[in-house]
Design goal:
This protein is an alpha/beta fold. The chain has two domains: 58-306 and 426-558, TIM Barrel; 323-424, no CATH class. Helices cover 38% and strands 18% of the residues. The chain has helices at residues 105-115, 120-126, 134-143, 156-164, 166-171, 176-192, 223-236, 248-258, 280-293, 323-328, 333-341, 343-355, 358-371, 376-394, 398-411, 418-436, 461-472, 478-492; strands spanning 4-13, 22-29, 32-35, 45-50, 55-58, 60-62, 85-90, 149-152, 154-155, 196-200, 240-244, 262-267, 298-302, 442-444, 509-512, 518-519, 523-528, 532-536, 539-540, 542-547, 550-554, 557-558. Strands 1, 2, 3, 4, 5, 15, 20, 21 and 22 form a nine-stranded mixed sheet that branches. Strands 9-10-11-12-13-14 form a six-stranded parallel sheet, with helices on both faces. A three-stranded parallel sheet has the order 6-7-8. Strand 11 (240-244), helix 8 and strand 12 form a beta-alpha-beta unit. The longest helix is centred in the C-terminal third of the chain and has 19 residues, at 376-394. It binds zinc ion. Residues 64, 66, 92-93, 448 line the site of zinc ion.
Amino acid sequence: MPEFDTLIKGGTVIDGLMSGRFVSDIGIKDGRITSIAGRIPASSATTVLDAGGLIVAPGFIDLHTHYDSQIYWDPWCTISGWHGVTSVGIGNCGFGFAPCRPADRDRAMLTMSRNEAVPLETMKEGMPWDWETFPQFLDSLDRTAKGVNVLAYQPLAPLMSYVMGGDDAKGRPATDAERLEMCRLLEESMDAGSCGWSAQLFGSNSIQRDFDGTPMITDTMAEADLLAFAAVLRKVGRGFIQGIGATRDLWEKLSEVSGRPIIYNVVALTTDQHGVANETYRSTLDWIADANQRGHRIYGQAVTTEIAFEFTLATWNLFDSSPVWRVVTLGGPEDRLVRMKDPEMRQALRDELDNAGEDGMRNFSSVIGAVSPPSRSTREATRHEEGLRGIHRRRDRGPRGQACDRRPARSRRRRQPRDHVQHAAAAVRARTDARAGQLELRHPGISDGGAHTKFMTFGAYPTEFLTKVARDDELVSLEHAHWSLSALPAMAAGFRDRGFIREGMPADLVVYDLDRLQMGPQEKAWDYPADEWRQVRTAVGYRWIMVNGSVTFEEGTGTGAVPGKLLRHGMDEASSI
Ligand SMILES: [Zn+2]
């Protein structure tokens, strides 16, 4: 009987704890790392994976996903699973499917088809709906085959809808009896293994809405109800809160009342239509730093991808904070087209751009900014500036350096007007700050995996972070990158034994070739149930991705293994740490 099931031989280990890299063999037995002992004889293992020249690092932890439905037809939660993610959090932003009575299932799916843009027919065909309560939903997740580990929030919207009724939950605060019942159910969810609760709190001007164009239940919920849910976490002494949209004061209040960590969404660098950076992320990071020093535990969750939305009139739904765009983008493509052709509607769209007050404009342009890459000319100017600096740094560095050198040559083809160059300079500075400044306060990782699948592929963020931020731009070390992609989110989510490499830990690992690592192009795939398509983006360079000691992907090809576990209370039952 060999001592190890698998031996990863000769890889360069980056342990996720910001230790300096070292070359070592790693022995794995029964799904766990049992030895990191320098040299281990090949004869002591059933399977030997030759990792010479490759990086061995902890699998990535993607806490912000909406794979609540997709996990039932795609156990690996792709595209995240392709990009080295080995654990996902579902039920973010207050949205999900439990608790839910059978009669309300269609409404629940309609809601998700709008606010997270998951295709309706796909959900209908792909979901088993073998639960009503949240604990039953966790049991269902436990039963279903998984290629990644999963932890689940109790989303507040279905909980409130279940007790108060969908319409009432939007119109008024809970009665005392309802609040008591909701808190009782939340406690039940926490006991069953929920990792905490989540809520989107954008208020009545929400940018991400329900099927009928009204704000989501949680957007307009009463503060007293919110604080009551926070108090439940204090009572059970476990879990954390994920949310988006509340004021800083309210986050601090929730932290105070719950006594638990907050995962704050989102730290993001946005730009206006000229590519000029908005400055809000700086004050966000300053506030997070200050709040943590005043006794709050607040983790910033950051968008670190270069946003590349690709959308059509038929698929887009994130202009909901604009009343007139909201009306235009409700319903299917035919409905939208009719409204787009209506002269009055067209005029209203023009008026909004021409005449919106400063607030309205800021609101609208922040959405546009958040969803627009810098304009082409700005981006090229940005590259030009970066390139000129980078060309000196990289000149001596072999084949990869030469590949980088090609970028500035391309961008030099067009002369840029001076103001664009200045805008670009601001954008570069801001991006550098956002990525490099106060790094310890935020983790990359708003993949929104499983959501908005027809226009974005943020699930590629680990690969993008490693290649662009760490390798090419050298804004962080690889050691730092792996800490922030794995150990930091693991800490935020209360994992006790994942997110870094150590003897005794579950073997959630990525083994990759840093030089070859890259994202594929964004492209359409017809691989969703009900013959639906989605945007995907593959990864190149991951030699092996391993979950609980079993390889799930080898050179981008799935092995079919489903070693993922439901992590109740942030850990699997066998965990001993
Ligand atoms: Zn979300």
